[in-house]
Write the structure tokens for this entry.
Amino acid sequence: MGMSGFRVAMLAPPWIQVPPPGYGGIEEVVDLLCSALLRRGNEVTLFAPPGSRSRGTVVNPLADAHPDEIQRSLHESDHVGRAFELVDAGEPGERPYTVLHDHCGFVAVAMADRLATPIVHTLHGSFDDPGVVDFYGHHGHKVRVVALSEAQAEHSPAGLQIAAVVPNPIDVAAWPLGEHKEDYLLWIGRMNEEKGPHRALEAARLAGLPLVLAGPVQPGQEEFFEREVAPHLGRTGVTYVGEVGGRRKAELFAKARALLMPIRWAEPFGMVMVEALATGTPVIAFPEGSAPEIIEDGRCGFLVEDTEDMAAAIARLGSIEPSRCREAARRFDADSVAARYEDVYRAAAERAAGGALAAPPI
Ligand code: UDP
């Protein structure tokens, strides 16, 4: 694309560095997307907490990251308000931003009509909370909304226009392919009812295989962890490794017989499913949210209704080839995801310019 590429202001949330040191789905997505957009000839300025890294320009609207205060509106509004000021002001000698691509919670959406630059907003959450439904009903028209899966788009409130469905990206080549599996099942995620570590424990027990649990106990999840997970940790074959990142996480995925995904919520995307597939590890998931779009039943894993079915599917894992799993992850390769976002940016820029542009803006 050369210099005719887009000039993108990428707005990460204020909580965790990009790329994330450990847990951080959105931050991982933002990192991969920035890299792919830059490779494709776009200019990207990343607005993210201090400690963030990118081959493009990095701007820190706030002096600190706030990993232990996720969702505090003080930090989000401060971060977004400052980013808006900087995008508005531009930099001497630089062309204006084509779009601001927002991955934050709500502040940028609510205030989007106060910024001349058009805003593309990726939906990273679910619509379980009626307040969220009302919020998008009122403010959603101010941004171009991107959903992560058809399921998420379908679950979105009536009247909210979804401009495009663009999945989260993965850099498949960065993950090791695990052709020789060890004798354990993996569950990795947030410790709550929706993600279902307790159901993974049940399925592994029924199947008689060891289970490795990974993931942080985030603020607010302590009680669930103590009640549903901690009592099982003394059991033979159950290991809790806490929050993992980097090589250790990649190996945990690559050597597992399967990733268990006993979710009970409308999972908007589920990065861990695609990460498992990239390492050649099958995924056994409940058919909620995006799972049926990611898992082709019988090819790269199984879709099952409950923990008993899950245990039965574990016995059939021998029929799934690691290479087929890795192949399934390629659909989400960062380059094709970035190309799809470029289409969304182009449409946003055309709309802002009040008509169709013949070429991407210079
Ligand atoms: N993750 C991690 N370390 C952990 C647990 C999770 O790095 O101990 C990462 C995981 O690899 C994935 C992200 O956090 O990239 C979670 O994203 P996902 O979409 O699966 O779940 P959610 O965003 O709903 O928490």
User: Anything to note?
Assistant: DSSP finds 13 helices and 13 strands in the chain.
